[in-house]
Amino acid sequence: MSELPDRLPTADDVARMTPGERIFHYRNVLNYSQPDLVGHMRLIAANYRGTGVDRRQISRWETGRHTPDPYSRHLLALALRVTVADLGLPPNPYFR
C-alpha cells in the first residue's frame, strides 16, 4: 500500500502537473480506481450514443504515453467533474 502524501497538492502544484498527472490526481481526489473511471465514462458516453474507453487507455493517458482524443477529453472531464482545461488539455470545439 502506498503512503499518503505529507500534504495535498496546492493549485501551483497542480498547475505544474502534466495532463497525465492531472488525470491521476483528479481520479484519486474522487477516490476512483481506473475501472471506476471507465464505468463512469461509459455511462456518460451512452448519453451521446457513443462508446467509452477501457482501463488500458486510462493507464496510457496517466503515464503520458498517449493523449485523449477530443471526444474522450470531454467524457473524461465530465467523469472527473472538472473542465478539459483543468486537465491541461486543449478543448474540443464541438462540446462545451
From TrEMBL:
InterPro entries documented for this protein: Cro/C1-type_HTH (IPR001387), Lambda_DNA-bd_dom_sf (IPR010982)
Transmembrane domains' residue ranges: none
Domain called HTH cro/C1-type: residue spans: 51-87
Species annotation: Dactylosporangium maewongense
SUPFAM superfamilies in alphabetical order: lambda repressor-like DNA-binding domains
Name assigned to this protein: HTH cro/C1-type domain-containing protein
